[in-house]
Specification:
Length: 716
C-alpha cells in the first residue's frame, strides 16, 4: 500500500502532473470519499444533524488544504537567498616561500615551479600558501583534496611520500602518513586527500597549506633526474578542493525610481568587492539578461550589486529575476526572486543610491583612443576617453546632483552649480542623467579650455598635456561630446568623452610630443586597467623627420606608403610604473614626405643605374648592377619599415657614390665594343689570325675586312 508521498510521486511520474495538481486531485478524492462515508453513516434522520457537523469540519479542512497547497509550491520557486555550493577550489599562486590562495580563476596568471633533484635527501618543503579569510563561520567534516601538477625529468619514475598540512585558524589537519609511497611517472597530477573535522573559524583567521615530499627514490635515474611541481597558471591550476562557506547571495527587494527599476543583490563574503570584480555574473529579468554594467557599493563584509532595468516594454506586475555568478570554471552560484513591480511611483529601499558623492576608487577601466592627421603645419586630433566602473558611477551621480548644496567643498561638481537653474527639479536626483544635465557639462567644458583641463586632471586623474601632446590652451575651436552608452541610468556602464581640435606645430627644428604616459601620479589608485590606441597619419606631401620613443618596452609600428605615412601604438594594459614619451621631428616635412622621398629615391637609383651603364661599356657590369640592386632593395625596405628619412635618403645617395668604385674594379672585356655592337648576323673566324669577325649583313656573297690583321674575308 502506497503512502501519500509515494502516491503523489506515482501520479506525477505517470501522468506528468505538477505537485500542485497532484495535491488538488488527492484532496478532491478525499472530499468525495468523505461525503460517501457521511451518506452511508446517516441512514436515519436522527443522525443527520451529527453528520452535518462532521461534514462541515471535514469540508473546511479540505478547502484549506486545497487553497494553500499551490501557495506553498510558489514559495519554493522564490529562492531569493542561497549559500555557495559546498565544494570549490582554492588555487595556489605566487612564489613557493610566500604563496597565496585564491578562489578566483582569473588570478591564475603566472606559472611557478619547484624542482626536487635526486641529490636531495630527507624531507623537502615544496611551498606554503595562505589566505586570510575575511569572515567568521563554521565548516563540516569531510575529505578535502590537494592536487598539484608534476613532471618527472630524466627518469622513468619516482617513488615518494607526500604530505599536506592544512591549518584553518587554530585547527591543523594532515594527510595520512600511513599511506604507501606514491609512484609518479612522466607527467600528471598528484592528488592527496586530507580528512578534516567539524570546526569554526573567526574573522581574519588564516587558511594555510604546506606541501612537502620525502623518501624520494628515482627509477633508472640519469645525471639530471628530478621532478618539477607546477602551479599558478591556467595550464597548471594546482588547488585545494574543499567544502567551506564562500559567499552568500541575497536578492533584495526591488526599488522603483521614476520609470526605472533597480534590483539590488547583496554578496556577503570575506573578499569585499573582489567577490564581484574578480568574477563573472549577471542578472536576467524575465529571462532577458541586463547588458548594462551594475552599480557597485561595497564594504569589507559585503558588496551590493544593483542592476538597472528600464521596463520600456513592460507594465510592471510580477517580474522574475535570476542572478548568477561564477568565480571559477564550473562553479556557478544562482538565486532567483519574484518581485511585484508598480511603475510610476517611487517605492522600495534606495540605499543603492549614495546620499554623498561616491568614491572614485573600487575598480575602473580606462581606454584612450587617439586618431591624428598631420599636414606638415598642424595636427588634427580626435581623442576618445572611455571609462567604466566606479569612475562612471561618480560621473553619473555628479551629473544627477547638479546644484546639490550638500556637495563637499572639494567636490569638482560644485563647478556646475551655476547650471542648477537649467535643470528642472523633477530631473534632479532621479537616478538617471537627463539631457539638460548632460548639456550642462558639455557646455561647461567647451566654454573654457581651463575647465577641460580641470575636469581631466582633478576629476579623471588624466594629465591633459600628456594625452593631447600639447597644453589644451593652445587648441583651436573645441568639439566636445559625451556618450553615456545604452543607458542613462545611474550605473557603472562605460562613458566616452570625445574631444576634437586642431593645433599648429612649430617647425623650428624642435621635437613635437605625440603621446606620453598620461595617468597622473596616484591615478592608478583609481584605474585598475589602462589601455591606449594611438594612430597618426600624414598626407603624401608631409612626413616625419624621425620618431623618438624613450621606452623600448612600448611597441609601435611605423609604415610608409607612397600616399601616406602611418604610426600606430597599441597597448591593452599599461602598468603603473611604465613611463614613455613619443615625439617626432617636425623639420623638413615636405622633403621627408612619402611622395617626395619616394621620387628622390627612384631618381637616385635610376641615376646610379645610368652612371653604372656608362662606366661599364667596356667592363663587366655584374658587380655594379648587383650593388645597385642590393641598395635598391635595402632602400625600399627601410622606406617601408619607417626608418628615419635621413637614413633612407643616405642609403639611396650611397648607391650613386658606390657605383663609381664598383665600376672601376670591374674586369675589362677584350673587344668589348665589337662584342656589344654585334648583331644577329653572327660571327666568323679569320683563317689568318683566328680572331672572330662580326657579320653585319645578310648580303651574299659578302666581303669583309678582319679588324685584327687586315685580311679580306669572302663569305658565300
Amino acid at each position: 500500500m502506497l503512502d501519500s508521498k509515494g502516491f503523489k510521486t506515482g501520479l506525477q511520474d505517470s501522468y506528468g502532473y505538477t505537485i500542485s495538481e497532484v495535491e488538488f486531485r488527492l484532496n478532491w478524492h478525499i472530499l468525495t470519499e468523505s461525503l460517501r462515508g457521511i451518506e452511508g453513516a446517516c441512514p436515519n434522520q436522527s443522525n443527520v444533524e451529527g453528520a452535518n457537523s462532521r461534514f462541515a469540519v471535514i469540508f473546511s479542512s479540505i478547502m484549506i488544504m486545497v487553497v494553500f497547497s499551490p501557495m506553498m509550491a510558489n514559495a519554493q520557486e522564490n529562492n531569493d537567498c542561497c549559500e555557495s555550493p559546498d565544494e570549490f577550489d582554492l588555487f595556489l599562486i605566487g612564489d613557493a616561500d610566500s604563496g597565496q590562495l585564491t578562489p578566483f580563476s582569473n588570478e591564475l596568471e603566472e606559472e611557478k615551479s619547484m624542482e626536487v633533484t635526486s641529490s636531495v635527501f630527507g624531507e623537502v618543503e615544496i611551498g606554503t600558501w595562505m589566505i586570510i579569510w575575511g569572515e567568521s563561520g563554521s565548516y563540516s567534516s569531510g575529505t578535502w583534496t590537494f592536487t598539484i601538477p608534476y613532471e618527472v625529468k630524466d627518469s622513468t619514475g619516482v617513488s615518494a611520500n607526500a604530505t599536506v598540512v592544512v591549518k584553518v585558524g587554530g585547527n591543523t589537519y594532515e594527510s595520512s602518513g600511513q599511506l604507501p609511497a606514491v609512484y609518479l611517472s612522466e607527467s600528471g597530477e598528484l592528488s592527496i586527500p586530507i580528512e578534516v573535522q567539524d570546526g569554526q573559524y573567526s574573522k581574519n583567521d588564516k587558511i594555510e597549506i604546506t606541501f612537502s615530499v620525502r623518501s624520494m627514490i628515482f627509477s633508472n635515474p640519469g645525471s639530471e633526474s628530478g621532478i618539477n611541481f607546477y602551479w599558478g597558471s591556467e595550464e597548471y591550476a594546482a588547488a585545494m578542493s574543499m567544502s567551506f562557506p564562500l559567499v552568500n547571495v541575497e536578492i533584495r527587494d526591488a526599488s522603483v525610481k521614476g520609470s526605472l527599476v533597480f534590483f539590488p543583490v547583496r554578496l556577503s563574503s570575506g573578499f569585499g568587492d573582489r567577490i564581484w570584480t574578480s568574477s563573472s555574473g549577471g542578472l536576467l529579468v524575465q529571462n532577458v539578461e541586463i547588458a548594462e554594467s551594475p552599480i557597485v557599493n561595497s564594504n569589507e563584509d559585503w558588496v551590493d550589486v544593483t542592476f538597472v532595468w528600464d521596463p520600456s516594454e513592460s507594465n510592471g506586475g510580477s517580474v522574475r529575476t535570476d542572478f548568477h555568478i561564477s568565480l571559477q570554471g564550473s562553479l556557478v552560484i544562482e538565486a532567483n526572486k519574484i518581485h511585484d513591480i508598480t511603475l510610476g511611483q517611487d517605492t522600495g529601499d534606495n540605499s543603492w543610491y549614495p546620499e554623498e558623492e561616491p568614491p572614485r576608487t573600487g575598480g575602473s577601466g580606462l581606454d584612450v583612443e587617439i586618431n591624428c592627421k598631420y599636414d606638415g603645419n598642424s595636427i588634427e586630433r580626435k581623442t576618445t576617453i572611455s571609462f567604466d566602473g566606479a569612475m562612471s558611477q561618480w560621473m553619473r551621480w555628479g551629473l544627477d546632483n547638479i546644484g546639490n548644496k550638500s556637495l563637499g567643498s572639494n567636490s569638482w561638481w560644485r563647478n556646475l552649480n551655476t547650471f542648477s537653474d537649467q535643470v528642472s527639479s523633477s530631473e534632479k536626483q532621479n537616478g538617471r542623467v537627463d539631457n539638460s544635465e548632460l548639456s550642462a557639462l558639455e557646455t561647461h567644458l567647451r566654454g573654457s579650455k581651463t575647465d577641460l583641463k580641470s575636469f581631466l586632471s582633478s576629476g579623471l586623474m588624466v594629465d591633459p598635456e600628456a594625452v593631447f601632446g600639447v597644453d589644451p590652451v593652445n587648441f583651436g575651436p573645441l568639439e566636445i561630446s559625451i556618450d553615456l552608452g545604452a543607458s542613462r541610468a545611474f550605473n557603472s556602464d562605460s562613458i566616452s568623452l570625445r574631444v576634437s581640435s586642431t593645433y599648429y606645430v612649430s617647425d623650428s627644428g624642435s621635437r613635437q610630443a605625440l603621446i606620453e604616459d598620461f595617468v597622473r601620479p596616484g591615478g592608478y589608485d583609481f584605474w585598475d586597467k589602462v589601455g591606449l590606441s594611438f594612430e597618426i597619419r600624414t598626407g603624401m606631401l608631409s612626413g616625419f623627420g624621425g620618431i623618438y620613443l624613450d621606452n623600448e618596452e612600448i611597441d609601435y609600428t611605423h609604415r610608409r606608403w607612397i600616399l601616406m605615412e602611418i604610426i600606430t601604438m597599441e597597448s591593452s594594459d599599461i602598468e603603473s610604473d611604465t613611463d614613455f614619451r613619443m615625439e617626432f621631428g617636425a623639420e623638413n616635412a615636405l622633403l621627408f614626405s612619402p611622395l617626395i622621398s619616394a621620387m628622390i629615391s627612384v631618381f637616385a637609383l635610376c641615376l646610379a643605374l645610368g652612371i653604372g651603364m656608362a662606366l661599364t661599356r667596356r667592363r663587366t657590369r655584374a658587380p655594379s648592377m648587383i650593388m645597385i640592386g642590393v641598395l635598391g632593395v635595402l632602400s625600399l625596405s627601410i622606406y617601408w619599415f619607417g626608418l628615419p628619412m635621413p637614413i633612407v635618403l643616405g642609403v639611396v645617395s650611397s648607391s650613386i657614390l658606390l657605383v663609381f668604385p664598383a665600376s672601376v674594379i670591374s674586369p675589362v672585356i677584350e673587344d668589348a665594343g665589337v662584342q656589344r655592337n654585334s648583331n644577329k648576323g653572327g660571327m666568323v673566324r679569320c683563317p689568318s689570325c683566328g680572331k672572330k669577325v662580326p657579320v653585319e649583313s645578310d648580303i651574299r656573297p659578302l666581303r669583309i675586312d678582319c679588324p685584327a690583321c687586315g685580311s679580306t674575308l669572302r663569305i658565300e
